[in-house]
Amino acid sequence: MQRLGAIFMALAGLSGCAEVDFESARAGEFDGAVSVYWLEQSTAGSGSGGRFVYVPVPGFELRFIRPEGSVPAVIAPGVMYTDGGSIPRVAQAFRGFSPWSYGPVYIVHDWLFAARRCVQDPEATPEQLKTRDMAFQETVDIFVETLKTLERDRRIVARDFSQDTVASAIAGPISRNLWARTDACDENRLSPRDQAVVDRILQQQKTLRTARVPGQEQVIEGVRVRLVDTISF
């Protein structure tokens, strides 16, 4: 563990571009629910690993309400591909380094980048356009705000090594370069097959009366679908 920690700290030190300020950051509020599905072999380019898709729950869409005075005041992620936290597989066995350890945090962060890619698209939604004038530093600030919110609400342990390391990584040059891409909307657009699956999931969510349990599987449009994570606020 100590050796792994030294490696991550070295990487974080090399990657520091934006400021990560846990001390001054304020907590906000989460509202709604997180619902992430795994779609096996759902696209030609996905291989055997499949894809993870965030699907808002109708009527209980996830929202992050930022601290008072922040702009934008509310972030409401839409349907998108996501891998949770982009954590190296070798590190995922350690506490705090699962791709879904901080699920709502990763969903909000992934959405900002997915939305940013679409700001030049003629069909960009109001939620996507919120990122048009957003500076890269603000994505890091929001990441820390969401972490502080889960910590305050005792959804995660108090600030620890994993939070510091992940926050430092997302503040680095790789993320900064990705943030600069504002004309790549097609890269995160759902394939027709995945969109058909998501449409069916949305229909089910509107009528389902029983609790959804992570691990549940079904076949939709010929695709094996598994509910990976579900969190309600």
Which terms summarize this structure?
single chain; disordered N terminus; five-stranded antiparallel β-sheet; 35% helix; three-stranded antiparallel β-sheet; 233 residues; alpha+beta; 8 strands; 7 helices
Structure description:
The chain is α+β, with helices and mostly antiparallel strands and 233 residues long. The protein contains 7 helices and 8 strands, in the order αββββββααααααββ. The strands form 2 sheets. Strands 6-3-2-8-7 form a 5-stranded antiparallel β-sheet. β7 (217-220) and β8 form a beta hairpin. The longest helix has 17 residues, at 136-152. The model is unreliable at 1-16, 42-48 and 87-97 (pLDDT under 50).
In short:
The chain is α+β, with helices and mostly antiparallel strands. 35% of the residues lie in helices and 15% in strands.
